[in-house]
Design a protein that fits this description.
Layout: E1 24-29, E2 32-37, H1 48-63, E3 69-73, E4 91-92, E5 96-97, E6 109-113, E7 116-118, H2 120-127, E8 130-134, E9 138-140, H3 154-161, H4 164-173, E10 177-178, H5 179-184, E11 190-192, H6 197-208, H7 213-246, H8 249-260
Parallel strand pairs: 2-3, 3-6, 6-8, 7-9, 8-11
Antiparallel strand pairs: 1-2, 4-5, 9-10
Length: 269
């Protein structure tokens, strides 16, 4: 087996080689750390700089005993379109993809979603502990329409957070899930009017901070330990699924069609 870089996983982003990060801001709100993804011109698609910025913020949340909860959000128009397909997103040592997806956190993280959370954006929400979404929020896993598969946790987290048949529908059709339906089936914790998701998420984070941080951390750790075996199996089958599609004609056609803004012409090979 080669000891070189793994072509099926993003390159590791380190603090030494990461470019400046004007597209991720974090700020303290009392005991809560607010993380903002701000690259709206690219629909908050995550490149290597954003991955490093998210990782920096979550390292602070993990390591600072004065912070008890976090909220991650996008802009008023869009949560995130996932990986920047042109430049790639990389990964980090502590957080994996986007600096978040494989992170073992001790403190709760809440997603505040306005607008689209597509592909990796949806997978960020799936990796959070709680989800607040406005009525204008939309979730989707469009990878199958591009000849690829969801590779940042959705192949196992979607069926935990959603009824199995709903997870299957999203994964194999790319259809949209709106916030109201997400709430009805238990994925979304709170639904707000447009523009109010962040305020509601900060309020929910404030409710978390009324609890003992020791109790919260112990509860989250107990839940995570019960899922560890499932996560390991989930990453194994995710890798196998990626290997199956990565060299296919359909994958090449799907990506080409995306950049050329046309319908793909599938061959099934």
């Amino acid at each position: 087996m080669s000891s070189g870089p793994d072509p099926l996983r993003p390159a590791v982003v380190s603090a030494a080689d990461a470019p400046p990060i004007p597209c991720v801001r974090h700020e303290r709100r009392g005991r809560v750390l607010l993380i903002r993804m701000e690259r709206e011109a690219k629909r908050n698609a995550i490149d290597r700089a954003m991955t490093h910025g998210i990782d920096q913020a979550l390292n602070l949340l993990d390591d600072d005993d004065e912070l008890w909860a976090g909220v991650i959000t996008g802009t008023a128009a869009v949560f995130s379109a996932g990986t920047d397909l042109k430049d790639g997103s990389g990964q980090t040592e502590r957080g994996g993809e986007y600096g978040l997806i494989r992170r073992r956190r001790r403190k709760p993280l809440i997603a505040a979603v306005e607008g689209p959370a597509f592909g990796g954006g949806f997978e960020i929400a799936l990796a959070c502990d709680l989800v607040v979404a406005s009525r204008g929020a939309r979730f989707a896993l469009p990878e199958s329409r591009r000849g690829v598969v969801a590779s940042s946790g959705a192949l196992f987290r979607a069926m935990r957070a959603l009824p199995l048949n709903v997870a299957k529908e999203l994964l194999i059709t790319g259809t949209l899930l709106d916030a109201e339906r997400g709430y009805q089936i238990g994925f979304v914790n709170r639904v707000t009017e447009p523009g109010e998701a962040l305020a509601a998420a900060l309020e929910l984070a404030g409710d978390v901070c009324l609890s003992s941080p020791v109790s919260v951390a112990a509860s989250l750790n107990a839940l995570a330990e019960q899922q560890d075996a499932g996560d390991a199996a989930g990453w194994t089958v995710t890798r196998e699924a990626v290997e199956r599609v990565v060299a296919s004609d359909d994958k090449r056609e799907g990506v080409s069609a995306f950049f050329e803004k046309r319908e793909p012409r599938w061959t099934g090979r």
